[in-house]
Amino acid sequence: MTIENIIAEGVVKAVKELYGADVEPKLVAPSATKKEFEGDLTVVVFPLLKISRKAPDATATEIGEWIVKNIDAVERFNVVKGFLNITVSPAFWLGLLHEIAADPDFGIRKADDSSDLVMVEYSSPNTNKPLHLGHVRNNLLGYSLSQILKANGHKVVKTNIVNDRGIHICKSMLAWKKWGENATPESAGKKGDHLIGDFYVAFDKHYKAELKEIMERENISEEEAEKKSALMAEAREMLRKWEAGDEEVRGLWKMMNGWVYAGFDETYRRLGVDFDKIYYESDTYLEGKDLVLGGIEKGIMYRKDDGS
Predict the structure, then answer these.
(1) How confident is the model at residue 28 (pLDDT cuts 50, 70, 90)?
(2) Residue 141 is part of which domain span?
């Protein structure tokens, strides 16, 4: 029972004993005492004057004396112009704190059939590198928000949408084939996501060196050199093979993504976050691709020279 209810019921009993009348608890429901007065809760006694047949201060004083004597939660009272200001005892607050500390579900509203369903999506990493500080931020915000919504009576589904395919993934795959020397997380002594991130960086390093060499050799711009990059052409060819279902490319993709997922899972465990459902772009990209191709056919979209 709340302290407000305890006070209201106490005043009801006081009125019954002092004046022989029955009143509804809502008629004497207390409110927070104004800052300029002493006390925690205030009861307005003006609605009781017809019953008490006494002045406001006298009525408030009689009720105050009764509840101090009979209600353990009340320590003292004072009266200001018909306002009964009540000070709650420290013992009550201490007992309340002990009750709250002992109840792990305090303040939590349970979801029911009428509760709103809320989806919270967070993390959403790429499988070509480790989670970075931005992912940590979003993981903690997303998980915290989902727990807050759940505690407020919502049905919550925590989701993670993983970008597990595309040219950026193929860059790491190609770098591993060219310079990886069959490295594994175990042989390298690294988390899988960190290992794959190293190969993504390696691709970019070799790609930039290649562009520089082409630009100097042929005296052309960086944009023109990008079109002549053999390394990028290999990455695009690997992506084409992936989309065609090439067994070797798909096998490499599954192996390297598996390393990354193991690394991600370790990070998620350390952060204390989890998901109810994980979606993968590789399972849904064709649906979006059909929409894009339809847009190109209708002339509302266009394709760049690099295929994007």
Answers:
(1) very high
(2) 109-162
